[in-house]
């Protein structure tokens, strides 16, 4: 598997994990979504809105969007699970689209990350690796917080290996994806 293929699978896995997590959380009322819990960000709402805000920042940087610092500073948190899920789905798809367009040369291209007081420069591949780690980190915190509700935390790590296709059938169908498009053709679709 080449690097663009791997990054595409990571972006799809991110979407699948968010889809499963948000689906499990759909039954949470606003009070439980915002209830104080033990974690770095002290509620499910705060944790998952932070995840969305950071996703929007980095995905904007990857796309070369102007005004990413201002957009991050003026981010309006989602008030409900449904609103969060909808906004995260749009962000996730934008990340997938970016990764599907990657070439090996594109993975090495420079990304300018406007930090307000300076511009940080890193390679696309490094920025994506950081973003995927950040997503997994905070989704794990939300997963742990969900254990303190009446909702059983869903399995979130069945989305990277082609051999585990039987564990993600419902999510793949819900998103209209086919295994061969996401996993088995990663090498041929990115080796341009």
Automatic annotation (TrEMBL):
Gene3D superfamilies: dinb family like domain (1.20.120.450). InterPro entries: DinB, DinB/YfiT-like. Keywords: Metal-binding. It comes from the Bacteria. Pfam families: DinB. PANTHER family: DAMAGE-INDUCIBLE PROTEIN DINB, SLR1116 PROTEIN. This is DinB family protein. It comes from Aquincola tertiaricarbonis. The lineage of its organism: Bacteria, Pseudomonadati, Pseudomonadota, Betaproteobacteria, Burkholderiales.
